[in-house]
Write a structure and sequence with these properties.
About 65% of the residues lie in helices and about 0% in strands. With about 290 residues, the chain is an all-alpha fold.
């Protein structure tokens, strides 16, 4: 119980950092793409002296997007500062988006759930890293309709590397290296094949390449055995969400709906209860995971 609470409190801090990642990583990539296009379109021009201030996950410090006032340390306490400031900037009074404390609270809840599920273990550390990354990817995809390579690809490689790690009992944590490698390959190729089959049949693009990489990363973390569960769960969650948006929010059917969040939710469910779900589906007489 104590570990669960500690994980939740730490999750609040991580959630605050995830807010930075969610906003700045796409902005950083936009700047890099702009600079690349500028250099490509005018390759013979002398580069201008760098005048822009550094912009990354560390610099500059947090500030109000309207008035530019720096956010002081006591104004940056997860959730509490938002409540104390009544959701407004201390300098100009502009409203602070509710999403910031929501992401902090969500990250705390997810961290507590992971801690409760895995306890103080190597598996818990890996599950926290995967869960936090899925939260960031979910919100970015909802905002921008794409999943940045600079997050999905490291997540994929971390998953492959994590398959080499053993827990305190000497057993592998989530998947053995063979299952992890096959999971990464099968995860990517399954959605890649579905994408091209749909494009040939309809002339439209049903999803983006970032979705392929995210499923590959989930396959690397959890093994190929979990892929079918993840695909089925993501399809169910996506169908329910899409119908709800169309029926209750009047969502235009021509406007694309990101698939990454549904993959992330399905991957998180598979992370916590995947072996049990697979065993229940296939039957108790069939082994759900090579690690059990």
């Amino acid at each position: 119980m104590v570990f669960d609470i500690v994980a939740g409190l730490f999750g609040l801090l991580v959630g605050s950092f995830l807010n930075v990642v969610i906003y700045r990583v796409p902005a950083m990539m936009d700047r890099e793409e702009r600079d690349w296009h500028k250099a490509y379109n005018a390759p013979n021009e002398q580069p201008e002296p760098a005048t822009e201030k550094p912009f990354n996950l560390i610099q500059p410090g947090s500030s109000c997007p309207k008035c530019g006032a720096a956010v002081k340390a006591h104004q940056n306490i997860p959730i509490l500062s938002y409540l104390f400031l009544r959701g407004r900037c201390a300098s100009c009074g502009v409203k602070i988006a509710l999403r910031y404390p929501v992401i902090e609270g969500l990250t705390a809840c997810v961290s507590m759930l992971v801690a409760w599920r895995f306890g103080f273990s190597v598996a818990c550390g890996g599950a926290l890293i995967l869960s936090w990354t899925l939260i960031a990817l979910t919100v970015i995809d909802l905002d921008r309709l794409w999943l940045p390579d600079r997050i999905t690809l490291p997540l994929l490689w971390f998953g492959l590397g994590f398959s080499l790690i053993t827990g305190a009992d000497g057993n592998l944590v989530f998947a053995d290296p063979r299952s992890s490698i096959i999971g990464a390959m099968a995860g990517y190729l399954s959605l890649w094949s579905l994408y091209h089959a749909f494009r040939l049949a309809t002339g439209k693009e049903g999803m983006g390449y970032g979705d392929f990489k995210l499923l590959a990363a989930l396959g690397a973390w959890l093994g190929w055995q979990m892929l079918l569960i993840i695909i089925l769960l993501s399809a169910v969650v996506g169908l329910v969400a899409a119908l709800s948006m169309i029926l209750f929010r009047g969502h235009d059917r021509q406007v694309p709906i990101p698939f990454g969040p549904y993959l992330a939710i399905a991957g998180f469910i598979a992370l916590l209860w995947g072996p049990e779900l697979l065993t229940a589906w296939l039957g108790s007489g069939i082994q759900a995971s090579p690690l059990q």
